[in-house]
Design brief:
Elements: H1 8-17, H2 24-36, E1 42-47, E2 74-76, E3 83-85, H3 89-92, E4 98-105, H4 111-120, H5 141-148, E5 158-161, E6 166-167, E7 169-170, E8 186-187, H6 210-213, H7 216-223, H8 227-230, H9 239-250, H10 253-258, H11 266-272, H12 276-290, E9 294-298, H13 322-347, E10 354-359, E11 363-364, E12 376-377, E13 381-386, E14 394-396, E15 398-399, E16 406-408, E17 411-412, H14 413-423, E18 431-433, E19 439-441
Parallel strand pairs: 1-9, 1-10, 4-14, 4-17, 5-8, 5-9
Antiparallel strand pairs: 2-3, 4-13, 6-7, 10-13, 11-12, 15-16, 18-19
């Protein structure tokens, strides 16, 4: 539909626009802004559980005093005027494809509450590590998309992989909540880096034909006898619809092929990295190429602090090893996977229609602590956006001299959520109804139009 084609009703109302203080030029500018803000067909949401340090990645402060500035140097990038950590040379080469939001902020200091905020765009009721995952909380981004703008039958709208994340309790914000299980993600917990990677959810038992799957009872046999018990539980609302979608996917060659990582060239798989995270990012690209609308890739299943393969919460790793683990593991993994994904999408003419979001639940303290590490810091941090209608080679906002607080153009998580929905062509003020039938906007924030191309 041409956004500039006026309907008869619109033309008749223009005479009254002036009464509201909106002149014809302003009205046309608003229409154009809305049209420009609807460019993404899909989202790849790369969630960096644990909270990466913005000072040691995308918002370095080389002139800050010792004890604040990073142990690493900075390098110029392909985007004039944008400098990042010198441990990210491949990222530097693709910075002309991305927008950095250097002034994202909130006030949640615990992983689960901050993550719920980051995964839903809605402020949690309390900031507590024990924040429980209940049906009173808001649904994840992908579940909202599946509810208000699903893809065609036979494809999942929302896929989540390869973990269910938790910090003690399961982290809220990973599923459909009160929308019902019909809008839960297709959850993939098998490791895409495993040699014989396959999806049990999409593989038929040897004695079960596609024809037999047409019989609903056959599908119930797959999911087990406990299904009947679950059907009576409030948390199981929507299971019937979920299984209907599963049936259509089980019989879809297009879906099965999307998950066939063996169909990719070994060279490209090497470029992504033969790691769980690298192959998960490759699988995400294959999914959006097939038509999946929202793919969440979790960097790790835990916040970090026990093994190097865990999340970005490096202040707990051996108490003194933040900078070695960043240099030896986290930054090289970031520098391999994200540039490869962006280049791969761009070369396939998918980047302009695919919004890539790289973010954690918060950043890290400007001040380096006694363990030569950084602690939780939600006061200001950086989120990276690419494709899907955002500007290339652009920085929105500026943090203060120590990257402690926004100096100009702050962005709340609510606004980031509204921006993602707007880019997908979904009105952020669209309403959902919770378990008590109360209307809830999918986002209480306002889109950041400044980042949009």
């Amino acid at each position: 539909m041409n956004p500039f084609a006026l309907s008869r009703r619109s033309a008749l109302t223009i005479g009254g626009i002036g009464l509201l203080g909106l002149t014809m030029p302003k009205w046309l500018a608003a229409v154009e802004q809305t049209a420009r803000a609807t460019k993404a067909k899909s989202v790849i949401f790369l969630y960096q559980f644990g909270g990466p340090s913005h000072l040691d990645t995308f918002d370095p402060k080389p002139d800050a005093p010792e004890g604040v500035r990073s142990h690493y140097d900075v390098i110029d990038t392909a985007a004039p005027g944008i400098r990042i950590c010198d441990q990210l040379p491949k990222m530097a080469a693709v910075m002309d494809k991305v927008t950095l939001l250097r002034t994202v902020y909130h006030d949640m200091k615990n992983h689960n509450s901050a993550s719920y905020y980051a995964l839903t765009g809605n402020r949690p009721p309390l900031d507590d590590i024990r924040l429980r995952d209940t049906l009173d909380l808001m649904p994840s981004y992908g579940s909202v998309v599946d509810r208000v703008a699903p893809v065609a039958a036979g494809l999942p709208s929302y896929v989540s992989l390869p973990y269910v994340i938790r910090d003690g309790e399961i982290t809220p914000g990973q599923h459909a909540s009160f929308l019902g299980k019909a809008h839960d993600p297709l959850l993939i917990t098998d490791d895409p880096n495993r040699t014989n990677f396959q999806l049990p959810e999409l593989s038929l038992p040897a004695n079960l034909s596609v024809d037999r799957l047409a019989d609903r009872k056959a599908l119930q046999d797959i999911v087990g006898k406990q299904t009947k018990l679950l059907e009576y539980a409030p948390a199981a609302r929507g299971l019937d619809q979920y299984y209907d979608k599963a049936l259509s996917m089980l019989t879809s060659p297009k879906v099965r092929e999307a998950f066939n990582l063996a169909g990719e060239s070994p060279k490209l798989r090497d470029h992504y990295g033969r790691t769980t995270y690298g192959q998960s990012c490759l699988l995400a690209r294959r999914l959006v190429e097939t038509g999946v609308k929202f793919v969440t890739v979790y960097y790790a299943d835990s916040i970090g602090g026990r093994r190097k393969e865990d999340g970005w919460d490096t202040h707990g790793f051996d108490n003194t090893r933040m900078y070695p683990i960043l240099k030896d593991y986290h930054l090289p993994l970031l520098d391999q996977t994200l540039p490869t994904l962006l280049n791969d999408l761009d070369e396939r003419d998918l980047l302009d229609s695919t919004l890539v979001v790289w973010m954690g639940e918060f950043g890290r303290t400007p001040k380096i602590n006694a363990n030569i590490s950084r602690d939780h810091w939600p006061g200001c941090y950086t989120v990276l956006l690419a494709g899907g209608g955002v500007k290339r080679g652009f920085v929105h906002g500026e943090s203060d001299k120590n990257a402690a607080y926004p100096d100009r153009d702050p962005v709340q998580l609510d606004d980031l959520a509204a921006t993602m929905f707007q880019l997908l062509g979904i009105d952020p003020q669209s309403e959902l109804h919770d378990r008590l039938n109360r209307p809830r906007p999918i986002s209480p924030g306002k889109p950041v139009f400044n980042v949009m191309a």
